[in-house]
Write a structure and sequence with these properties.
Elements (H helix, E strand, L loop, with lengths): L21 H16 L5 E4 L6 H10 L9 E5 L2 E7 L8 H12 L3 E5 L2 H11 L10 H14 L1
Length: about 150
């Protein structure tokens, strides 16, 4: 019987820790928040890039996915508003900087957010109507807490 050497085994060593995915957790929380607070006809979607290895990356590239595209697109009153999510102190890659500059040159707005509060503030600056804007502060806090608890 042939046994793979330990370095080639597909199983993770029992002492290794599972990989953390802080940006995925942040994106789930923010998507939950946006789904709760945005009102029609404002539209939003996440851009599904990253993860899945080289094969998935090659497929996405072949389908036209551009490196550096922000994580979330919001369309409100004919304007494209992009949100790049960064967990912790993560910084933008050179591809992200270049794409953000292109998007701004094309007339879009782009921002980097690290929390639901950052997103809430940016929506206010952009003038995007939300149900949260009409709520008293205590109810706003409950809405944000529910979004965090959902992920």
């Amino acid at each position: 019987m042939f046994v793979l050497p330990a370095r080639m085994s597909r199983k993770r060593a029992s002492s290794s820790k599972p990989r953390a995915h802080p940006e995925q957790s942040l994106q789930i929380a923010i998507a939950t928040y946006l789904a709760r607070v945005l009102t029609a006809p404002t539209f939003f979607t996440a851009i599904g890039h990253g993860g899945g290895g080289k094969l998935r990356g090659a497929i996405l590239k072949g389908m036209g996915m551009q490196a550096g595209v922000p994580d979330i697109l919001i369309i409100n009153r004919g304007k494209c508003l992009w949100i790049e999510l960064k967990a912790g102190k993560g910084s933008l890659s050179s591809e992200q900087i270049a794409v953000h500059q292109w998007l701004v040159a094309a007339g879009c707005s782009v921002t980097v957010c690290r929390s639901i509060d950052d997103v809430r503030e940016r929506l206010d600056v952009w003038g995007v109507p939300t149900i949260e804007a009409k709520l008293p502060p205590a109810e706003r806090a409950v809405l944000r807490a529910k979004a965090l608890a959902q992920h």
